[in-house]
Amino acid sequence: MNQAIRNAWIALAVMFALILGSISYVQVVGADDLASNQWNNRAILATFCQDRGAIIVGGQPVVQSAPTGTESCKFQRKYLQPELYAGITGYYSKDYGSTGLEKSMNGALTGQSDQLLFDRLKQLLLGQQPQGASVELTIDPAIQQLAYSLIPDDKRGSIVVTNPKTGAILAMVSKPSYDPNAIATHDQAAAQAAFTKIQGTPGINLNQSVSGPTGALLAPGSVFKLVDTTAALASGKYNKDSVLPNPAQMPLPGSTATLPNYAGGNCYTQSEASFAFALEQSCNTPFASIALDLGQDAIGKQAEAFGFGQDAGNLLHLDYQAGQWPKGLDQAQLAQSAVGQFNTKASPLQIALMTDAIANGGVQMKPSLIKSITAPDLRVVDQPKPEVLRTSTTPDIARQITEWMTDVVSDGIAKGAAVPGVKVAGKTGTAELGTSGLNNSWFTGFAPADNPQVQVTIVIEGVDVLTGAKLTSPSASKIFEAVLKK
Q1: Residues 191 and 333 in one domain
Q2: In this protein, which residues make up the domain named Penicillin binding protein A dimerisation (predicted)?
Q3: pLDDT(418) > 80
Q4: Cβ atoms of 364 and 235 closer than 8 Å
Q5: Structural domain for 444, as ranges
Q6: Do 276 and 197 fall within a single domain?
Q7: Which of 37, 234, 291, 352 is deepest in the core (most CB within 10 A)?
Q8: Mean pLDDT, rounded, for 144-170
Q9: Do residues 350 and 480 share a domain?
Q10: Catalytic status, residue 104
Q11: Looking at 113, 134, 222, 274, which residue is catalytic?
Q12: Does residue 34 sit within a domain?
Protein backbone atom coordinates (compact mmCIF):
# COMPACT_ATOMS: atom_id res chain seq x y z
CA MET A 1 0.00 0.00 0.00
CA ASN A 2 2.82 2.39 0.93
CA GLN A 3 4.48 1.72 -2.46
CA ALA A 4 1.24 2.55 -4.30
CA ILE A 5 0.90 5.79 -2.36
CA ARG A 6 4.50 6.71 -3.13
CA ASN A 7 3.95 5.99 -6.84
CA ALA A 8 0.85 8.14 -6.84
CA TRP A 9 2.71 11.01 -5.17
CA ILE A 10 5.57 10.69 -7.66
CA ALA A 11 3.13 10.76 -10.58
CA LEU A 12 1.39 13.82 -9.12
CA ALA A 13 4.75 15.55 -8.58
CA VAL A 14 5.80 14.87 -12.17
CA MET A 15 2.48 16.15 -13.52
CA PHE A 16 2.73 19.25 -11.32
CA ALA A 17 6.27 19.90 -12.57
CA LEU A 18 5.15 19.55 -16.18
CA ILE A 19 2.24 21.94 -15.67
CA LEU A 20 4.45 24.43 -13.83
CA GLY A 21 7.07 24.14 -16.56
CA SER A 22 4.49 24.76 -19.28
CA ILE A 23 3.12 27.80 -17.47
CA SER A 24 6.63 29.13 -16.88
CA TYR A 25 7.49 28.70 -20.56
CA VAL A 26 4.36 30.51 -21.73
CA GLN A 27 4.73 33.30 -19.18
CA VAL A 28 8.51 33.77 -19.32
CA VAL A 29 10.58 31.93 -21.93
CA GLY A 30 8.13 31.93 -24.83
CA ALA A 31 6.20 35.07 -23.94
CA ASP A 32 7.92 37.36 -26.43
CA ASP A 33 7.72 34.88 -29.29
CA LEU A 34 4.06 34.14 -28.65
CA ALA A 35 3.16 37.80 -28.28
CA SER A 36 4.96 38.79 -31.47
CA ASN A 37 3.70 35.88 -33.56
CA GLN A 38 2.10 37.31 -36.70
CA TRP A 39 -1.02 35.16 -36.24
CA ASN A 40 -1.50 35.73 -32.51
CA ASN A 41 -4.23 38.36 -32.53
CA ARG A 42 -4.98 38.33 -28.80
CA ALA A 43 -2.19 40.77 -27.98
CA ILE A 44 -3.24 43.00 -30.86
CA LEU A 45 -6.92 42.94 -29.87
CA ALA A 46 -5.95 44.03 -26.36
CA THR A 47 -4.28 47.21 -27.64
CA PHE A 48 -5.70 47.64 -31.15
CA CYS A 49 -7.80 50.70 -30.37
CA GLN A 50 -5.21 52.45 -28.19
CA ASP A 51 -3.11 55.49 -29.08
CA ARG A 52 -0.15 53.58 -30.50
CA GLY A 53 3.13 55.51 -30.81
CA ALA A 54 4.29 57.05 -34.09
CA ILE A 55 7.08 55.86 -36.36
CA ILE A 56 9.05 58.96 -37.31
CA VAL A 57 11.40 59.79 -40.18
CA GLY A 58 13.18 63.13 -40.39
CA GLY A 59 11.08 64.56 -37.56
CA GLN A 60 7.77 63.72 -39.23
CA PRO A 61 5.51 60.70 -38.65
CA VAL A 62 5.26 58.12 -41.40
CA VAL A 63 2.93 56.01 -39.23
CA GLN A 64 0.61 57.30 -36.52
CA SER A 65 -2.62 56.52 -34.71
CA ALA A 66 -5.45 58.86 -35.71
CA PRO A 67 -8.69 59.40 -33.71
CA THR A 68 -11.70 57.66 -35.26
CA GLY A 69 -14.37 59.69 -33.49
CA THR A 70 -16.06 56.51 -32.26
CA GLU A 71 -16.21 55.08 -28.73
CA SER A 72 -16.00 51.44 -29.82
CA CYS A 73 -12.49 51.84 -31.25
CA LYS A 74 -10.98 55.27 -30.63
CA PHE A 75 -7.87 55.05 -32.83
CA GLN A 76 -7.00 53.83 -36.33
CA ARG A 77 -3.46 53.17 -37.55
CA LYS A 78 -2.59 55.47 -40.47
CA TYR A 79 0.33 55.03 -42.86
CA LEU A 80 1.59 58.20 -44.52
CA GLN A 81 3.53 57.71 -47.77
CA PRO A 82 2.59 54.03 -47.38
CA GLU A 83 4.28 52.45 -50.41
CA LEU A 84 7.52 54.31 -49.71
CA TYR A 85 7.90 52.85 -46.21
CA ALA A 86 5.84 49.64 -46.28
CA GLY A 87 8.87 47.36 -46.43
CA ILE A 88 10.17 48.90 -43.20
CA THR A 89 7.07 49.69 -41.16
CA GLY A 90 5.06 46.61 -42.10
CA TYR A 91 1.41 46.71 -41.00
CA TYR A 92 -0.65 46.40 -37.80
CA SER A 93 -3.91 44.57 -38.40
CA LYS A 94 -6.66 43.23 -36.17
CA ASP A 95 -7.20 40.32 -38.54
CA TYR A 96 -3.71 39.63 -39.94
CA GLY A 97 -1.37 40.41 -37.07
CA SER A 98 1.67 42.59 -37.59
CA THR A 99 4.91 42.68 -39.55
CA GLY A 100 8.00 44.88 -39.87
CA LEU A 101 8.71 47.46 -37.20
CA GLU A 102 5.06 47.36 -36.17
CA LYS A 103 5.80 43.83 -34.95
CA SER A 104 9.36 44.07 -33.64
CA MET A 105 8.93 47.46 -31.91
CA ASN A 106 5.49 46.62 -30.54
CA GLY A 107 6.58 46.94 -26.91
CA ALA A 108 7.69 50.54 -27.40
CA LEU A 109 4.82 51.51 -29.70
CA THR A 110 2.19 50.21 -27.24
CA GLY A 111 4.01 51.55 -24.19
CA GLN A 112 4.37 48.03 -22.77
CA SER A 113 8.18 47.81 -22.78
CA ASP A 114 10.10 47.83 -19.49
CA GLN A 115 11.61 51.20 -20.43
CA LEU A 116 8.12 52.74 -20.25
CA LEU A 117 6.99 51.35 -16.89
CA PHE A 118 6.98 54.83 -15.31
CA ASP A 119 4.82 56.17 -18.13
CA ARG A 120 2.31 53.32 -17.80
CA LEU A 121 1.98 53.90 -14.06
CA LYS A 122 1.56 57.65 -14.58
CA GLN A 123 -1.17 57.13 -17.19
CA LEU A 124 -2.94 54.65 -14.90
CA LEU A 125 -2.83 56.89 -11.82
CA LEU A 126 -4.02 59.96 -13.72
CA GLY A 127 -6.70 58.04 -15.60
CA GLN A 128 -5.13 58.98 -18.93
CA GLN A 129 -5.60 57.21 -22.26
CA PRO A 130 -2.78 54.62 -22.65
CA GLN A 131 -0.21 55.99 -25.09
CA GLY A 132 2.86 54.41 -26.67
CA ALA A 133 6.31 55.76 -27.36
CA SER A 134 7.42 57.11 -30.72
CA VAL A 135 10.21 55.40 -32.64
CA GLU A 136 12.44 57.61 -34.79
CA LEU A 137 14.35 55.96 -37.62
CA THR A 138 17.81 56.59 -39.07
CA ILE A 139 16.23 56.92 -42.53
CA ASP A 140 16.90 60.17 -44.43
CA PRO A 141 13.53 61.03 -46.03
CA ALA A 142 15.04 62.78 -49.06
CA ILE A 143 17.39 59.86 -49.80
CA GLN A 144 14.57 57.35 -49.24
CA GLN A 145 12.37 59.20 -51.74
CA LEU A 146 15.20 59.52 -54.27
CA ALA A 147 16.09 55.83 -54.03
CA TYR A 148 12.46 54.80 -54.46
CA SER A 149 12.09 57.02 -57.54
CA LEU A 150 15.18 55.43 -59.15
CA ILE A 151 13.48 52.02 -59.40
CA PRO A 152 11.06 52.09 -62.36
CA ASP A 153 7.47 51.21 -61.48
CA ASP A 154 7.49 48.33 -63.96
CA LYS A 155 10.65 46.72 -62.49
CA ARG A 156 11.48 44.69 -59.41
CA GLY A 157 14.37 46.04 -57.41
CA SER A 158 15.83 47.07 -54.08
CA ILE A 159 18.22 49.76 -52.89
CA VAL A 160 20.02 49.89 -49.52
CA VAL A 161 21.94 53.02 -48.50
CA THR A 162 24.07 53.03 -45.33
CA ASN A 163 26.68 54.95 -43.42
CA PRO A 164 29.47 52.32 -43.34
CA LYS A 165 31.14 53.88 -40.29
CA THR A 166 28.07 53.59 -38.05
CA GLY A 167 25.83 51.01 -39.75
CA ALA A 168 22.95 53.51 -39.88
CA ILE A 169 20.46 52.80 -42.69
CA LEU A 170 19.86 56.00 -44.65
CA ALA A 171 17.44 54.46 -47.15
CA MET A 172 15.96 51.04 -47.80
CA VAL A 173 13.37 50.66 -50.55
CA SER A 174 11.88 48.07 -52.86
CA LYS A 175 9.39 47.84 -55.69
CA PRO A 176 6.75 46.61 -56.07
CA SER A 177 5.32 47.80 -52.79
CA TYR A 178 1.88 47.92 -51.18
CA ASP A 179 -0.41 50.10 -49.02
CA PRO A 180 -0.51 48.92 -45.37
CA ASN A 181 -3.62 51.07 -44.79
CA ALA A 182 -5.63 48.56 -46.79
CA ILE A 183 -4.74 45.77 -44.33
CA ALA A 184 -4.92 47.87 -41.16
CA THR A 185 -8.47 49.04 -41.81
CA HIS A 186 -11.23 48.28 -39.28
CA ASP A 187 -13.35 47.00 -42.17
CA GLN A 188 -12.78 43.24 -42.00
CA ALA A 189 -14.08 42.49 -45.50
CA ALA A 190 -11.93 45.23 -47.04
CA ALA A 191 -8.85 44.03 -45.12
CA GLN A 192 -9.41 40.46 -46.31
CA ALA A 193 -9.76 41.56 -49.94
CA ALA A 194 -6.61 43.70 -49.72
CA PHE A 195 -4.58 40.96 -48.04
CA THR A 196 -5.63 38.41 -50.65
CA LYS A 197 -4.73 40.81 -53.45
CA ILE A 198 -1.30 41.57 -51.99
CA GLN A 199 -0.53 37.89 -51.47
CA GLY A 200 -1.44 37.23 -55.10
CA THR A 201 0.66 40.05 -56.55
CA PRO A 202 3.97 38.74 -57.96
CA GLY A 203 7.02 40.37 -56.44
CA ILE A 204 5.49 41.69 -53.22
CA ASN A 205 7.03 40.53 -49.97
CA LEU A 206 5.88 42.02 -46.69
CA ASN A 207 9.48 42.68 -45.59
CA GLN A 208 10.76 43.19 -49.10
CA SER A 209 13.53 45.67 -48.35
CA VAL A 210 15.55 43.09 -46.43
CA SER A 211 15.46 39.96 -48.55
CA GLY A 212 14.79 41.50 -51.94
CA PRO A 213 11.50 42.34 -53.63
CA THR A 214 10.45 38.71 -54.13
CA GLY A 215 11.40 37.70 -50.60
CA ALA A 216 13.97 35.26 -51.99
CA LEU A 217 17.74 35.44 -51.88
CA LEU A 218 19.28 36.33 -55.25
CA ALA A 219 22.37 35.29 -57.17
CA PRO A 220 24.85 38.15 -56.57
CA GLY A 221 26.85 37.73 -59.77
CA SER A 222 30.16 39.53 -59.96
CA VAL A 223 29.81 41.56 -56.77
CA PHE A 224 30.76 38.26 -55.08
CA LYS A 225 34.22 38.61 -56.65
CA LEU A 226 34.99 40.94 -53.76
CA VAL A 227 34.79 37.85 -51.51
CA ASP A 228 37.14 35.93 -53.84
CA THR A 229 39.61 38.80 -53.89
CA THR A 230 39.60 39.12 -50.10
CA ALA A 231 40.11 35.36 -49.70
CA ALA A 232 42.98 35.41 -52.19
CA LEU A 233 44.85 38.21 -50.42
CA ALA A 234 44.17 36.67 -46.99
CA SER A 235 45.60 33.31 -48.13
CA GLY A 236 49.10 34.71 -48.62
CA LYS A 237 49.28 32.98 -52.02
CA TYR A 238 48.35 36.18 -53.85
CA ASN A 239 49.28 39.83 -53.54
CA LYS A 240 48.59 43.12 -55.35
CA ASP A 241 51.15 42.23 -58.04
CA SER A 242 49.86 38.72 -58.78
CA VAL A 243 49.27 37.77 -62.41
CA LEU A 244 46.04 35.82 -62.93
CA PRO A 245 45.14 33.50 -65.83
CA ASN A 246 42.49 35.15 -68.00
CA PRO A 247 41.43 32.86 -70.85
CA ALA A 248 38.38 33.92 -72.83
CA GLN A 249 36.71 30.69 -71.71
CA MET A 250 37.53 28.21 -68.98
CA PRO A 251 36.56 24.53 -69.34
CA LEU A 252 34.62 23.56 -66.23
CA PRO A 253 36.32 20.50 -64.64
CA GLY A 254 34.36 17.29 -65.04
CA SER A 255 31.97 18.94 -67.46
CA THR A 256 31.60 19.69 -71.15
CA ALA A 257 30.51 23.24 -70.31
CA THR A 258 32.74 26.30 -70.20
CA LEU A 259 32.76 29.48 -68.14
CA PRO A 260 33.13 32.53 -70.42
CA ASN A 261 34.36 35.99 -69.60
CA TYR A 262 32.00 38.96 -69.67
CA ALA A 263 31.38 39.58 -73.36
CA GLY A 264 30.63 43.29 -73.01
CA GLY A 265 33.98 44.36 -71.59
CA ASN A 266 37.64 44.24 -72.56
CA CYS A 267 38.54 40.96 -70.86
CA TYR A 268 39.30 39.37 -74.24
CA THR A 269 42.21 41.79 -74.81
CA GLN A 270 44.47 40.04 -72.27
CA SER A 271 45.19 36.35 -71.69
CA GLU A 272 46.62 37.23 -68.28
CA ALA A 273 45.36 39.88 -65.92
CA SER A 274 46.19 41.77 -62.76
CA PHE A 275 43.64 42.01 -59.97
CA ALA A 276 43.02 45.62 -61.00
CA PHE A 277 42.22 44.69 -64.62
CA ALA A 278 40.14 41.63 -63.66
CA LEU A 279 37.97 43.71 -61.34
CA GLU A 280 37.79 46.72 -63.66
CA GLN A 281 36.45 44.58 -66.52
CA SER A 282 34.67 42.02 -64.30
CA CYS A 283 36.44 39.05 -65.88
CA ASN A 284 35.13 35.67 -64.71
CA THR A 285 37.93 33.23 -65.39
CA PRO A 286 40.57 34.77 -63.07
CA PHE A 287 38.26 34.49 -60.06
CA ALA A 288 37.12 30.99 -60.96
CA SER A 289 40.82 30.05 -61.11
CA ILE A 290 41.39 31.55 -57.65
CA ALA A 291 38.51 29.52 -56.21
CA LEU A 292 39.78 26.29 -57.78
CA ASP A 293 43.24 27.02 -56.37
CA LEU A 294 42.15 27.96 -52.83
CA GLY A 295 39.26 25.49 -52.56
CA GLN A 296 35.66 25.89 -51.49
CA ASP A 297 36.47 25.97 -47.76
CA ALA A 298 38.70 29.03 -48.10
CA ILE A 299 36.12 30.93 -50.15
CA GLY A 300 33.37 29.80 -47.78
CA LYS A 301 35.33 30.91 -44.72
CA GLN A 302 35.78 34.37 -46.17
CA ALA A 303 32.11 34.55 -47.16
CA GLU A 304 31.21 33.70 -43.55
CA ALA A 305 33.51 36.49 -42.35
CA PHE A 306 31.37 38.88 -44.41
CA GLY A 307 28.20 37.43 -42.85
CA PHE A 308 27.16 34.76 -45.36
CA GLY A 309 25.49 31.86 -43.56
CA GLN A 310 25.76 33.59 -40.18
CA ASP A 311 22.93 33.83 -37.66
CA ALA A 312 21.44 37.23 -38.28
CA GLY A 313 20.00 37.67 -34.80
CA ASN A 314 17.85 40.76 -34.55
CA LEU A 315 19.43 42.75 -37.36
CA LEU A 316 17.43 45.90 -38.03
CA HIS A 317 14.45 44.59 -36.04
CA LEU A 318 13.25 43.12 -39.34
CA ASP A 319 13.18 39.67 -40.88
CA TYR A 320 16.54 38.98 -42.49
CA GLN A 321 18.08 36.09 -44.39
CA ALA A 322 21.85 35.74 -44.38
CA GLY A 323 23.53 35.07 -47.73
CA GLN A 324 24.35 31.51 -48.72
CA TRP A 325 27.62 29.96 -49.83
CA PRO A 326 26.84 26.40 -51.03
CA LYS A 327 28.56 23.34 -49.60
CA GLY A 328 29.59 20.02 -51.13
CA LEU A 329 30.56 21.55 -54.47
CA ASP A 330 32.30 19.75 -57.26
CA GLN A 331 34.95 21.68 -59.19
CA ALA A 332 32.59 22.92 -61.90
CA GLN A 333 30.10 24.14 -59.31
CA LEU A 334 32.88 25.81 -57.32
CA ALA A 335 34.00 27.77 -60.38
CA GLN A 336 30.44 28.93 -61.04
CA SER A 337 29.76 29.77 -57.38
CA ALA A 338 32.92 31.90 -57.20
CA VAL A 339 31.47 34.31 -59.76
CA GLY A 340 28.17 34.59 -57.88
CA GLN A 341 26.20 31.99 -59.80
CA PHE A 342 25.08 28.37 -59.18
CA ASN A 343 23.74 28.34 -55.58
CA THR A 344 25.54 31.39 -54.22
CA LYS A 345 22.76 33.65 -52.91
CA ALA A 346 22.50 37.00 -51.17
CA SER A 347 20.05 39.72 -50.20
CA PRO A 348 20.66 43.41 -50.95
CA LEU A 349 21.37 43.96 -47.26
CA GLN A 350 23.94 41.13 -47.22
CA ILE A 351 25.86 42.74 -50.09
CA ALA A 352 25.57 46.12 -48.38
CA LEU A 353 27.09 44.67 -45.19
CA MET A 354 29.95 43.14 -47.17
CA THR A 355 30.68 46.46 -48.85
CA ASP A 356 30.36 48.36 -45.57
CA ALA A 357 33.09 46.15 -44.10
CA ILE A 358 35.49 46.94 -46.96
CA ALA A 359 34.69 50.65 -46.69
CA ASN A 360 35.21 50.60 -42.91
CA GLY A 361 38.70 49.11 -42.89
CA GLY A 362 37.51 45.52 -42.59
CA VAL A 363 35.11 46.11 -39.67
CA GLN A 364 31.43 45.40 -40.26
CA MET A 365 29.06 47.51 -38.17
CA LYS A 366 25.67 46.24 -37.07
CA PRO A 367 23.05 47.78 -39.35
CA SER A 368 20.67 50.07 -37.50
CA LEU A 369 17.24 51.51 -38.27
CA ILE A 370 16.42 52.92 -34.83
CA LYS A 371 17.69 56.41 -34.04
CA SER A 372 15.79 56.91 -30.80
CA ILE A 373 12.73 55.92 -28.76
CA THR A 374 10.86 58.78 -27.09
CA ALA A 375 8.27 58.47 -24.33
CA PRO A 376 4.94 60.37 -24.52
CA ASP A 377 6.39 63.09 -22.25
CA LEU A 378 9.20 63.57 -24.85
CA ARG A 379 11.76 61.85 -22.65
CA VAL A 380 14.31 59.89 -24.73
CA VAL A 381 14.31 56.39 -23.27
CA ASP A 382 16.68 54.75 -25.75
CA GLN A 383 19.24 56.00 -28.26
CA PRO A 384 21.18 53.05 -29.71
CA LYS A 385 24.90 53.55 -30.26
CA PRO A 386 26.93 52.18 -33.20
CA GLU A 387 27.91 48.57 -32.59
CA VAL A 388 30.57 46.37 -34.19
CA LEU A 389 29.03 43.23 -35.69
CA ARG A 390 32.17 41.39 -36.85
CA THR A 391 35.64 41.83 -38.33
CA SER A 392 35.61 40.66 -41.94
CA THR A 393 39.18 41.30 -43.07
CA THR A 394 42.31 43.28 -42.24
CA PRO A 395 42.70 47.04 -42.74
CA ASP A 396 45.47 46.47 -45.30
CA ILE A 397 43.35 44.13 -47.43
CA ALA A 398 40.37 46.47 -47.17
CA ARG A 399 42.52 49.39 -48.35
CA GLN A 400 43.88 47.41 -51.29
CA ILE A 401 40.44 46.28 -52.42
CA THR A 402 39.17 49.86 -52.05
CA GLU A 403 41.94 51.02 -54.39
CA TRP A 404 40.92 48.45 -56.99
CA MET A 405 37.23 49.28 -56.59
CA THR A 406 38.10 52.93 -57.24
CA ASP A 407 39.71 51.82 -60.51
CA VAL A 408 36.49 49.97 -61.42
CA VAL A 409 34.66 53.31 -61.38
CA SER A 410 37.39 55.52 -62.84
CA ASP A 411 38.66 53.14 -65.54
CA GLY A 412 36.32 50.12 -65.64
CA ILE A 413 32.75 49.15 -66.36
CA ALA A 414 31.20 51.08 -63.44
CA LYS A 415 32.00 54.54 -64.86
CA GLY A 416 28.34 55.44 -64.57
CA ALA A 417 28.74 55.60 -60.78
CA ALA A 418 31.32 58.39 -60.94
CA VAL A 419 30.71 61.68 -59.12
CA PRO A 420 32.66 64.77 -60.28
CA GLY A 421 35.38 65.68 -57.79
CA VAL A 422 34.82 62.59 -55.63
CA LYS A 423 36.66 59.27 -55.56
CA VAL A 424 34.04 56.53 -55.80
CA ALA A 425 34.70 52.84 -55.15
CA GLY A 426 32.36 50.34 -56.78
CA LYS A 427 31.70 46.92 -58.26
CA THR A 428 29.04 45.77 -60.69
CA GLY A 429 27.43 42.37 -60.96
CA THR A 430 25.36 40.57 -63.58
CA ALA A 431 23.71 37.30 -62.53
CA GLU A 432 22.28 35.32 -65.42
CA LEU A 433 18.75 33.93 -65.08
CA GLY A 434 18.96 30.66 -66.99
CA THR A 435 18.78 30.95 -70.77
CA SER A 436 16.23 33.79 -70.81
CA GLY A 437 18.79 36.45 -71.70
CA LEU A 438 17.67 38.36 -68.59
CA ASN A 439 19.77 39.05 -65.51
CA ASN A 440 19.76 40.43 -62.02
CA SER A 441 21.85 43.57 -62.31
CA TRP A 442 23.84 44.74 -59.27
CA PHE A 443 25.96 47.66 -58.15
CA THR A 444 27.63 48.07 -54.78
CA GLY A 445 30.09 50.75 -53.70
CA PHE A 446 30.89 53.69 -51.45
CA ALA A 447 32.13 57.29 -51.47
CA PRO A 448 34.38 59.08 -50.91
CA ALA A 449 36.73 56.14 -51.32
CA ASP A 450 39.35 57.65 -49.00
CA ASN A 451 36.84 58.66 -46.27
CA PRO A 452 33.61 56.72 -46.79
CA GLN A 453 30.40 58.49 -45.78
CA VAL A 454 27.86 56.53 -47.78
CA GLN A 455 27.46 53.01 -49.18
CA VAL A 456 24.95 52.12 -51.89
CA THR A 457 23.80 48.65 -52.99
CA ILE A 458 21.31 48.29 -55.85
CA VAL A 459 19.75 45.25 -57.50
CA ILE A 460 17.30 45.32 -60.39
CA GLU A 461 15.75 41.96 -61.25
CA GLY A 462 15.01 40.39 -64.60
CA VAL A 463 16.51 42.93 -67.00
CA ASP A 464 18.81 42.74 -70.01
CA VAL A 465 22.43 43.83 -69.65
CA LEU A 466 21.95 47.28 -71.20
CA THR A 467 18.89 48.11 -69.10
CA GLY A 468 20.63 46.90 -65.95
CA ALA A 469 23.66 49.08 -66.64
CA LYS A 470 21.41 52.14 -67.00
CA LEU A 471 19.52 51.45 -63.77
CA THR A 472 22.35 50.59 -61.38
CA SER A 473 25.64 52.54 -61.62
CA PRO A 474 24.04 55.86 -62.74
CA SER A 475 21.45 55.56 -59.97
CA ALA A 476 24.23 55.00 -57.44
CA SER A 477 25.93 58.17 -58.69
CA LYS A 478 22.76 60.18 -58.03
CA ILE A 479 22.49 58.79 -54.50
CA PHE A 480 26.19 59.38 -53.72
CA GLU A 481 25.90 62.98 -54.88
CA ALA A 482 22.68 63.60 -52.94
CA VAL A 483 24.11 62.26 -49.66
CA LEU A 484 27.47 64.01 -49.99
CA LYS A 485 25.82 67.36 -50.73
CA LYS A 486 23.99 67.32 -47.38
Answers
A1: no
A2: 52-135
A3: yes
A4: no
A5: 221-371+384-484
A6: no
A7: 352
A8: 96
A9: yes
A10: no
A11: 222
A12: no
